[in-house]
Structures are given as structure tokens and as C-alpha cells.
């Protein structure tokens, strides 16, 4: 393929990927702005926002991280908390093991960039036959992360120049989980994972209280998902991803 054809192919891939990711663009930019503002108010400027979103790139965990920075949490506890909060990505990746392996070096980035929204897009896209699936996958993932980086960095910049009451902005975290919950509820035939998560959350809240229930709830939910994995019907989602 000559240079001209490569450029044309890249333009078509980029155009298709951008159209697919427009909903994520609006969601990530505004959610990222909320994170950036909260991070700046916690004493960390836009440089921190840029590199955190570039290297960590985990929306929910980044919001949790704001409260952990300077909090004295041990490294082991931080690792366990991160694995627990992001453990759902283990299950996401199972649908794309073979496809990511076939992508070679790009596969490593795809593993890193497999967020909730990117996963949903990759599962639901109908890629035109004239486009290269591997290139489309990579472009979609890269665009999604760029939206998040822009939003986080912009939010930190805004927070440093505009002084206002940030009360309520942290509700973006709650809203994020509510949206994910609703999306997963309608995306899967089996509602068992959602029900198990809800039961674990409520039970842990009652037992451990509002200040320490998250980690036990997440660990319990993951353990129950492993126990009941054969009862969870994920056939519909696997068919879409294949």
C-alpha cells in the first residue's frame, strides 16, 4: 500500500472511530473536568491531572485517588483497593483475549485502555469491511483516552483560575456508577452480577459503616461472581463481541 492509500485509509479509520466515540467525548470531557477541578482543589495542579489521566487512566479509581493522595495509605492496601475497584476489567478482557493477542504490540495498549465505555464501543461496533479492525480498535481506544486527558487537564486549569464552591461536584462519582449500573443492567440477559453487587454493598454498609464498606463489598462481590460464574448468562454479550 503506497503512502497516499495509507493516508486515505487512516482518514477513513479516524473518521469512523470519531463518529463512534462522540458520545464518549461528551461524557469523558465533562466527567474529566469534574475530576480535574476536584484534584486542583485538593492541591494538585494541571500537570498532575495530565499525568494521572495519562498513566493511571481509571475514571473511578482516579476519583478515589483524590482522597488517598497524602492520606498515608500503605502500598499493599492501595494495590488491593485498586484491584478491587477495577476488577470488573478482568471480566471485560476475557471477551477480547484472542483479538488483542492478534494485535501484537498494540494489544498491550488495548489491555491498558479497556475502560467501561471503550469496552461497550468495541463490543457494539459494526466495522465496515473496507476498514482494518485492528486499526479501528486502536483508534477508538486512543481517542477515548485523549478525551479523558483533555477533560481532566482542562478541569484542573479551570479550577486554578476560577474560584467557586465545588460542593456537589464529587457527586459526579456517584453519577458515574449509577450510569454504569444502569448500562450493565440493560446490556446483559442475567442481572445476577448487579444483584450480587447490590447485596454485597448494602450488607457491607450495614456491617462496616459508611467509612469502610467499599473494600469489603468489592472483595465479597468478586468472590461471589467467581462462585456463581457458571450461573451468569453472558452468551448474548459474547455473540456481539465475536
UniProtKB/TrEMBL annotation:
Main location, first listed in the record: membrane
One GO biological-process annotation of the entry reads: L-valine transmembrane transport
Segments passing through the bilayer: 16-39, 46-69, 147-164, 171-188, 194-227
Tell me which domain of life the UniProt entry assigns to the organism this sequence originates from.
Answer: Bacteria
Annotated localization: Cell membrane
Alphabetized InterPro entries for the sequence = Brnchd-chn_aa_trnsp_permease (IPR011606)
Key words of the record: Cell membrane, Membrane, Transmembrane, Transmembrane helix, Transport
* GO annotation, cellular component aspect: plasma membrane
As for membrane topology, the entry says:
Multi-pass membrane protein
Q: So what family is this one in? A: Belongs to the AzlC family.
Xref: PANTHER family: INNER MEMBRANE PROTEIN YGAZ
Return the protein name. Answer: AzlC family ABC transporter permease
Q: Which organism is it from?
A: Acetobacterium wieringae
Amino acid at each position: 500500500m503506497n503512502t497516499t492509500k495509507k493516508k486515505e485509509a487512516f482518514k477513513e479509520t479516524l473518521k469512523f472511530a470519531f463518529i463512534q466515540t462522540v458520545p464518549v467525548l461528551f461524557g469523558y470531557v465533562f466527567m474529566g473536568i469534574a475530576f480535574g477541578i476536584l484534584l486542583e482543589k485538593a492541591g494538585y495542579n494541571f500537570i498532575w491531572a495530565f499525568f494521572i489521566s495519562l498513566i493511571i487512566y481509571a475514571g473511578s479509581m482516579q476519583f478515589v485517588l483524590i482522597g488517598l493522595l497524602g492520606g498515608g495509605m500503605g502500598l499493599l492496601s492501595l494495590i488491593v483497593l485498586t484491584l478491587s475497584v477495577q476488577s470488573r476489567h478482568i471480566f471485560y478482557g476475557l471477551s477480547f483475549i484472542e483479538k488483542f493477542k492478534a494485535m501484537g504490540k498494540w494489544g498491550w495498549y488495548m489491555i491498558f485502555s479497556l475502560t467501561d465505555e471503550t469496552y461497550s464501543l468495541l463490543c457494539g461496533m459494526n466495522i465496515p469491511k473496507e476498514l482494518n479492525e485492528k486499526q479501528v480498535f486502536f483508534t477508538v481506544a486512543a481517542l477515548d483516552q485523549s478525551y479523558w486527558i483533555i477533560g481532566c487537564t482542562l478541569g484542573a486549569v479551570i479550577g486554578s483560575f476560577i474560584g467557586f464552591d465545588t460542593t456537589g461536584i464529587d457527586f459526579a462519582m456517584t453519577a458515574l456508577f449509577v450510569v454504569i449500573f444502569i448500562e450493565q443492567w440493560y446490556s446483559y440477559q442475567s442481572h445476577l452480577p448487579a444483584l450480587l453487587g447490590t447485596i454485597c454493598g448494602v450488607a457491607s454498609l450495614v456491617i462496616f459503616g459508611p467509612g469502610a464498606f467499599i473494600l469489603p463489598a468489592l472483595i465479597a462481590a468478586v468472590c461471589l461472581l467467581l462462585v456463581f460464574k457458571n450461573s451468569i448468562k453472558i452468551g448474548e454479550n459474547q455473540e456481539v463481541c465475536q
